[in-house]
Amino acid sequence: MRRRYTREQSEDRFNTFLSVFFVTVLFGGLLYAMFIINPIEQQEKITCNKLQKQAEDYKNFMYSPTNIGGFYITKADKEMCDRYEIEIKAPVK
User: Which of 31, 41, 78, 82 is deepest in the core (most CB within 10 A)?
Assistant: First the structure.
């Protein structure tokens, strides 16, 4: 015969289910964030290394008041590369 639960027992079981469900979702979200954030950092480092190489390749074509179209990096690029301690030898515009 099927067991009948009282209202309190049913609420307790439901609350337990919700607790387990939300803990599982939070844990899954944490794992997801760990695997997403790390690749973003790696991509930013790659971008900084590319900027560093471009600065070396175009060092004779630097930005200056007389050469407005020259190579430069933006403030955002500088902040991003400073975060990873990658020095870009190019003017910041």
Answer: 78
Residue 80 near residue 44, CB atoms below 8 Å: yes
Within 1-93, strands assigned E span none
Q: Give the CA angle between residues 42, 62, 40 to the nearest 5°.
A: 10
Contacts of 49 (CB under 8 A, 6+ apart): 86
pTM: 0.60
Condensed to tens digits (0 to 9), the pLDDT of residues 61-93 reads 876 777 777 888 999 999 999 999 999 988 888
Only one residue has tokens 């955002």, namely 76
Q: What is the largest CA-CA distance in the chain?
A: 92
Every domain of the chain and the residues it spans: 7-83
